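Pasting as-is:
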Amino acid sequence: MGLNLGAQIYWQATAFPEAFARTRHILTLPQYWSFRLTGIAASEATSLGCHTDLWNPHGATFSTLVDRMGWRDRFPPVRKAGDILGPLLPAIAAETGLPADTPVLCGIHDSNASLVPWLAAPGPRAILSTGTWMITMALGGKAVTLDPERDTLINVNARGEPVPTARFMAGREFEEIAGQTPAPATEADEATVLQNSIMALPSLHPTTGPFPGKSFAWTTEPQGAERTAAASFYVALMGAACLSLIGAEGETVIEGPLARNHAFARMLAAATARPVTLAGQGAGTGLGAALLAGPLGTAPAGRQTVQPPQDPRYAAYAAAWQAKVSAR
């Protein structure tokens, strides 16, 4: 419950007023490092706009909390994520052996970096940045009213635009269901899970994700590789629920570990009735951060598209899962 940066700063300001009075700059993490490397302090919207209560994403300015608490003068000027703040400090260049004129960019929030390769692509789409968390972000989707009780929020992309977002602890729940070294699932294992309606129902971590307060359950507990297939279907259907909450439209791009899970991709395509794109090698936060040095929106190579399966059992399974979750 300490993920809200505004709450942390409020606690520091009220619990340690004398120390806080000496504060020169309040910096988010990427800008802390660019400051250490260049000596130039900057604020940046993707970091300020990520569940902090410090930024108004629709007004593209600091929130009323910042002004009410008198903090604005502690935040340096807002710069774009791709702005070059300056060259390396001479001492850093000397210690690292890097050229003294090495440019240092302002920097970007980690999950938001996953959006950078897709910002210039035409049409709506959603990006699923996967790892311990699945961060589901909609670009150009339909307007929706977000439900904060279902782990949704507004992020801000590198262009300063609001991005409806939903979160789910996909990687952790998948590992807790399938095990740290899950048995590889074949299409035959998927077929068994589909045929027998073997389903995992949310949630292992009921304080997060799209179905708060619901406790985890199996319809029938599977064994071996069938457990891996059922876990893959489960996180896909949770992802589909997140996509619905944020008004996502168009293709769904998967980056991170789940981009290698084809059972996940097939079920997600079936549940959304839209194609799923598996991002290429190196896609994600690292690539997005690197692309800040060039034109925003250079899509990665090596992508693979998964269409909704023709096998009707996938869509039927998704519909049955959604009905069971609603009934609970």
